[in-house]
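Lab manual, section 2.4: Encoding a predicted structure.

Procedure: take the sequence of the chain (509 residues), apply the prediction step described in section 2.3, and record the output as structure tokens. A sample record is shown.
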Amino acid sequence: MKKVLISLFAWTSVCLVAAQPKDAAHPNWEQEILRVVYPDQSLVDLYEKTWAIAADRVRIGPAGIPASPYLDENCYDEQIWIWDACFMVLFSKYAPEAYPGKQTLDNLYVPILENKATPLRIHLRDNPPLFAWAEYGNYEFTGDREHVTEILENKKYLQRHFDYFNTIEHGSRNETISPNPIFLNQIRDESGKLLGFTWTGGASGMDNTPRGRDAGGYNKIMWIDAISQQALSALYISRLAEAYGNKKEARIWKKQYQELKEHINRTYWDEQDGFYYDVAIATGEPCRIKTPASFWAMLAEIPSKKQAARMVRYVRDANMMGGTYPWPSLSRDDKDYHDATGDYWKGGIWLPMVYMGTKALEKYGYYELADSLAEKVIRQQIRTYQKITPHTIWECYSPSADSPSTEYGRRARPDFCGWSALGPISLFIENMLGFREINALEKSVRWSLKSKNGTHGLRNLKFGPIRTDIIYNSLSNQVKVETNAPYTLIINGKKHRIKTGKNLLEHIV
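Recorded output:
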């Protein structure tokens, strides 16, 4: 993600010197956050500590930025990253009054798409295109129609960014917006049809990944994640338009998605290994370096069920991307895999990739596997928190031990909340507690209740206008619900109509 070969001391000094924005933690963030109930108090404590660290990343200013306050990922105070910001939306939605996730995206839309310089520079304008996926998740949870009207209808930011990614000129610069040129390049056939993209480690977010190694370099391959993320964008622009009620726009983007889906399956699927790979431009052959990046195709719903089943084998296999420390950023059977620490993207475990992979597995019904792998990563985070000083959340983790990963020999960044909050917050809520879907548009909560978890649930859950507590009591086998408005609670597939006030559901499991 951030390639800077400096010591931790020097990095800290740089950040302090550049610290123009001021901390702006919401004065009542502790009252605003969603509260979890769970028998393992250490995980509850980690959950709350994570919110506390994230509160310190809420920033005001500098003057002249489109959205203030905003969420900072905790790298450089004067720069922001696209994919960090998108992933932060996915946990900050659980406490939107105190954590300005979606607002942060305006600090990216305006400079990129309106070409307006702001005091916050965008480190890489060709970072992964995840806006539509993040915006849909936020809309489903909050029901914020006014925001969607602005980004989908009035400004058309999502549609415009899709086109921007397909057309931005390789090597072009806009130094008032970003310190870096565009590394992305579009590969087209003789007729001009888009075949894929070349990228770099930094622009893709996977800084020192060995992808492209056997084809001659980063610019010699078409990257599976880039084109899959564009398919993901088209898919979620379509779904956002459908949910909003613009059926014409939804049809346009569904067609765009279908075309990309068919192309990805024709070009990037390797029948021999049962996996999506980067493709060598010169030969059209797969570059057989396995990373979680290939699961962007699964998140975008590209594979058939049969294809997905073949991909899943690789995250079940401890010698590849499964095991006690799952989702390493490079398969363990690769010659460049770094077992001791992961050396950043040569095996390091990154929470954005864990979260993406978890949701990809869920798309194809692999809930038990998704939950198991997610819990392993969260357990690694708590053990690392307890064992390593300072006691905090890290940028990325070792694929073989309870410790942070390293970046070119130095320890990865601490207090990274930031996207690493996805583990103790989002994966804890969604996969360990089992709250699969919280939908303000449909006024529903879908809960995969696990009786083995003992007494557990949520307090102060806010989605749309609804405020509710949902607690399962394992001793009485009852679920107690209190709410300010009616909604549907779906527990292990069974619907329960929840009325305003107090509700008691008996004989649940």
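Check your result against the sample. The two ends are 44 Å apart (CA to CA).
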